[in-house]
Amino acid sequence: MKRAVAALLAGALAVHSVLADAQEIGRCGQRVAQIRTALDDDARRTRVWYWSWMGIGSALLVGQGVLAAVTTGNTQVELAVGSGASVFIPGLLLAHPPPVMSDSELLDARLEATTVSGRLGDPCVVLPRARELLERDAKDEAFATGWFAHTFVIGGNIVLGLFLGLGFHDWLGAAKQAVGGSLVGEAQILTLPGRALQVRGLGVGGEF
Length: 208
Fold this sequence. Notes:
Layout: H1 2-69, H2 73-86, H3 88-95, H4 100-113, E1 115-116, E2 119-120, H5 123-144, H6 147-168, H7 171-190, H8 195-202
Antiparallel strand pairs: 1-2
Helix pairs in contact: 1-2, 1-3, 1-4, 1-5, 2-6, 2-7, 4-5, 5-8, 6-7
């Protein structure tokens, strides 16, 4: 009798352990799927943002540069300064493209490598890597939209405006550069998708 009871208890514990493991694997799979969906969506939107601003920045750079070459006086100086400031848009994008665009592909490749017949092998093994990529992309987006980015954009354009005002006594041009340049820069910052940052804030990837 005692052996039968012990066997039943052992069986119950084994079943409980299996169910607990299955639940944990299910939770891991759900989180991995959420992170993958978020990063794929973020990467897709960020690529559109990236190439849009690459085009806008290049157009401002070339357009103002060409106009500066065929004008004179304060207008020429304003356009030359505006063209020079526009270098920062494509320049920064080339120097530091948002990592989510490549991290999304890294996660997809990792998941595909561990998927057999449409089933992910062990999502709890993949989850730490998914969290790591989400955290990295969220940190980058937090920096790109944080106080430093706003300070750099607004402060930089104010400095260029003061250069026009104090150096060339062109205060109208100074105002246009300070306000117009800041508006363009702020638009670039505020339109960054930032899906990874949002998902991290919701705790989807786990505790950070």
